[in-house]
Amino acid sequence: MPRASLLxxxxxxxxxVKVVAITGVLATTLWNLxxxxxxxxxxxxxxxxTEPLLVLVWEWPSKQVPNxxxxxxxxxxxxxxxxxxxxxxLLHRADVVVFPHTRLQPGxxxxxxxxxxxxxxxxxxxESPSNTKSLAGWNQTFNWVMTxxxxxxxxxxYGKLVPNQSATVNIPAKTNLVSWVISNYHKTQKRAEVYKNxxxxxxxxxxxxxxxxxxxxxxxxxxISKSKFYLAFENSIHQDYIxxxxxxxxxxxxxxxxxxxxxxxxxxxxxxxxxxIHVDDFGSLAELAxxxxxxxxxxxxxxxxxxxxxxxxxxxxxxxxxCTICSTYPSLPRGRTYPNLESWFNT
Length: 347
Hints:
Blueprint: H1 17-37, E1 53-57, H2 72-77, E2 82-85, E3 96-100, E4 120-124, E5 144-147, E6 154-155, E7 159-163, E8 176-181, H3 190-198, E9 205-207, H4 220-224, E10 227-233, H5 244-252, E11 256-260, H6 264-267, E12 277-278, H7 285-293, H8 297-302, E13 310-314, H9 318-328, H10 341-345
EC number: 2.4.1.-
Subcellular location: Golgi apparatus, Golgi stack membrane; Membrane
GO cellular component, one term: trans-Golgi network
């Protein structure tokens, strides 16, 4: 791994014999010092001021593992002074070690046996508490949490609105009223109950594995964009748990999201109040269905006013999420661990 140069910069011009000799001795001394500092027995903090932040990802969060060793944060996202690696032999030199919950085994045998005092461990999860198991065994283990929740040490949302300069509104042509893409349909989920009752009052075009009508990756947005409304129903209801169902399937597709998730006030911390419809806005699903079916074109266009000021940024690349650690590192708290991770996440 490239390290900061320890050799002195000499003036331009051809050096004399005495200068060359002195320089040679100095270079040898500095080289020996460099080897000493690179030894695992030496505290990382003794030399980190000359080196980039080293982030070790213990296991990659997704099944597809890209080539991550090197200066990818600078190359991809303009974040300097940070190196990301998956080489476990660098454990004793790493400033930060990242542990995705989906890759943690139930037992602690999956964790490193030794941990340098200066090193910080990060627990990572993008799943909701309802879909995150075996948290009880990780008390007093992790220094920081990295999740979709805004109160995380490292906040990694599924998406966000970013300012733009277009001042235009683009609404795709519509051929049907409501659509929904669903892959994991469970009758015990609230979204299944809401859909079942809502479908008594209007027709919903359903796609996805659950309905045996899967959409290819490039077909998803063009298909959904033909609907006036999209059921952005989360699989569970939790604070800040607002996923790609809103950001990609609805807003990015150019349709109006009908959301089922945390309360409206929580959504309004992410997107404008007039950009979506919340199931809880209505006293009954019959009222919601009537509202959708009888909406005129002028009222419908108002839901897209946000496009004049914002564009959707979708977070899909785990490399970008990992590099977020580097940009937030200076402001992160030091010297503490989460005493009860399960209690914090289920709050």
